[in-house]
Write a structure and sequence with these properties.
Elements (H helix, E strand, L loop, with lengths): L12 H10 L3 H14 L4 H8 L3 H14 L21 H11 L11 H12 L7 H19 L4 E13 L25 E9 L4 E7 L4 H14 L5 E7 L3 H4 L9 E5 L13 H7 L9 H16 L2 H8 L8
Parallel strand pairs: 1-4, 4-5
Antiparallel strand pairs: 1-2, 2-3
Helix pairs in contact: 1-2, 2-3, 3-4
Length: about 325
Amino acid sequence: MPRRITLKPHLTTDELYRCYRACRQPQEKLRWRALYLISHGEYANHAARRVGRSSGWITALARRYNERGVKAVPDARGAVAPGRRPRLDSEAAQALDLALRSEPTDGGLWTAPKVARWIAERTGTSVNRRRASRVQKKLGETVADLARAYPAESVELWTQDEARLGLKPILRRQWSPRGQRPIATARPAYEWLWLYAAVHPLSGRVFWLVLPYLNAALMQRFLDEFALTHATQGKRIVMVTDGATAHRATTLRVPERITLVRLPPYTPELNPTERLWMVVREGVANRDFDTLDELEQSVCTRCQKISAAPEQVTALTNYHWLPTT
């Protein structure tokens, strides 16, 4: 049943409208408009549809506004998380730019090793230019350590990742008969679900789980469900994950027979599971879904078809540098 949200009287409806009309920052303007619609008596889901956001987004905005007043509306992105400090300061960056405009001291071309040496000499810190080699060494050592510690048990290497899918249509190019233009219905909505997956690259087996969010509690549920079917008696699992917050939560209790290995930051190309998402999204591309239930049914059907072709999964995910286990 549609519901209305009550706003605290920090501003009147007319004042909210004037703030909306006067604002020039796109994201902030969207928030003012949403608050004006709520104050004007719109139902939450109707207001969400009019501003192109989800009901959850509207609810969270109203809660922040009720707690903090007008301070909750301005766009504060960039003020909280400025990002990693650059390795090179402005002076060193300019010096590198000048160096790249001339030949290296040993002649030839500027390559990654030469730039890494230049930065190391300039800053006194080393630059890792071969992350795949580092991951390969770490995975190999982890597998070997488990094999030595549990000689009577087998060790398998799995990789894990998540992808968000929603009612916002995915548009892709496709082939069609000559003279016929393919038509895809696009009716954007902003509701989402998360598809968790773990793949065994050597055999092509995949473990899927559809969940409503990505957080530590649901990551815990994924690991527990995975352990019931794959981390059974007589088997140890090395699972490669990225550095998502849900994977690093202090509340996460990793099952006894699973060992997590985290990839370096900003290296999605090193996670074989990433390559499954283009195949999954192909199954829901150029289609329009009214509800998340319809989308979930289609996603599950697509996952079943992918799992039924393990040789194709292996071709996508079995990187040559992964340990063969």
